[in-house]
Amino acid sequence: MNKARLAIALGAAAAVGAAVAAMAIWLTQMATGHVGLAAVLAAVGFAGFVLVVFRISSNKAIALARKASQHQREKYEAYYHLLASWMRLRISGRTLAEYFADHQFKTVAIYGLGRLGVCLREELRQSGVDVRYGIDLRAQHFSYLDIKVVSPDSPMEPVDVVVVTPFFEAGKLIADLQGRSPSRIITLRDIVYSL
Fold this sequence. Notes:
The protein folds into two domains: 2-74; 95-194, NAD(P)-binding Rossmann-like Domain (Rossmann fold, 3-Layer(aba) Sandwich), CATH 3.40.50.720. 62% of the residues lie in helices and 11% in strands. The chain has helices at 2-32, 37-91, 97-102, 115-127, 170-178, 188-194, and strands at 107-111, 130-135, 148-150, 161-164, 184-187. The chain has a five-stranded parallel beta sheet, with helices on both faces.
């Protein structure tokens, strides 16, 4: 969104600058008495060209901002629905640990330690499932957790399953993990919606 605003601001500044320059040329020629039709047309044409370029670039910037906004909205809606489903499970007395027990997953790594990942870790820890480590791009920021946290490009010890919590981007993450980890890989979304 900030890039779109920057593009719009730069385009507006260019358009205003071109208009001021055209006006200055025209006023200078008026003051000296050498106003030629070609000079006026050139100044107006240049200002018009700048305005058209600005309009096209601002429309592109606005379209990109809307697309990014749409993606963010879809992502947050998906997370909201997942959390609502997870909460309904908890209200009915069920936990995600059931899924791990049903599939005989005793050791787990959690990919993504944002809000969902930390909530998953707490729920599994309270149920006795062994969360061996976390995986996160910002591994150094999780020193407050009492588990080991590694970056995605670090060597990964084998576990029964790796749970990917940023499920909205899971396709690429799972593809990257499959080449580096022999463990089974699932998403948090798959777990919640299977119960």
